Amino acid sequence: MMNNFYRTAITAILVIGMLAMAATLNAREKAITIGGKNFTEQYLLAELGKLLLENEGFDVSLRTGVGTAIARQSLEASQIDMYFEYTGTAYTVFYQQTDQAIMTDPAKVYDWVQAKDAEKDLIWLEPVTFNNTYTIMMRNEDAEKLNITTISDFGNHVENNPKDITFALEAEFWERPDGFKALMQLYDFTMPVRAIKRMDMGLTYLALRNNQVTSAMGFSTDGRIMAFDLVNLEDDKNFFPVYNPAPVIRRETLEAFPEIRDILKPLADKLDTETMQRLNAEVDVEHKDVTRVAEAWLREVDLL
Questions:
Q1: Are 261 and 287 part of one and the same domain?
Q2: Which of 47, 91, 94, 163 is 20 to 30 A distant from 117 in Cα terms?
């Protein structure tokens, strides 16, 4: 009786140990690294993806806080498994395309970059519906006083009043093919060099709010636009492409874990422009922690 008891106990311990080891190995096998760029929305998207995947048993590492070029290079070099990229960025920056009929149509630009990246074994999952395009911003009171509602109005004002304007931008936005130099060419105006103030992306909104500059670049989904009483000028010549974000993942990773597609799909279904503006504002204006903001929203929409 006693021998049988001990044998049964030992067997049970061994089984439990084997199950624990199998669970540990499985967790290690389901390891994935998510990259991200260096602004609030990208931190949030990476965190949302991380939380959803962890909820399904993945071991997720984050490598965020880099520029567009490094994020892309990291994915191509297999240093990360996926990150959220914007359709317009891939089309204009990575592939240097300029067809207005494609770049301003959400479905067409997504299909185009999806097909081209598939040749490099990079797979675009379902895109999120909000369009985080670049924008030219002014303080609302200044835009109303000067009767500026469009970028054409803005360009005319710069040409006629070159000493009356200053513009805050991130360094990357100056040289990009979808950036400020190309925008000035299309809208046919020239900003004096002394008027250009280069700074980190997050500071452009503060500089504009605090009257340190008279205009600035921004992202259309940024919560500070409404919070700081700023206004986005209408892109009346359709210069800026559509920028719908989507998870871009290495084919090897997706083939190993095809469930990732379904795990991340709710972000495409539920994350709209209004929601993204609110989440960005909670981080940038209310100074809440990125992880807590992401987790709270996922619980709010019953995804956690």
A1: yes
A2: 47
Secondary structure of residue 65 in the 3-state scheme: strand
C-alpha count within 13 angstroms, C-beta hemisphere, residue 188: 4
**In terms of domains, do 19 and 117 share one?**
yes
Q: How far apart are CA 295 and CA 26, in angstroms?
A: 25
Per-residue pLDDT tens digits for 156-173 = 999 999 899 999 999 888
Residue where one domain finishes, among candidates 183, 198, 232 = 232
The token duo for 304 is 């956690």
Pairing state between β 245-250 and 167-169: unpaired
Domain co-membership, 72 together with 28: yes
Contact by Cβ (8 Å): 47, 41: no
Average pLDDT over residues 272-291: 94
Q: Rounded distance, CA 166 to CA 156, Å?
A: 14
pLDDT the model gives residue 7: 57
Domain total of the chain: 2
Nearest-angstrom CA–CA distance, 92 and 134: 13
User: pTM for the full model?
Assistant: 0.79
Look at residue 112 and tell me if it is in a domain: yes
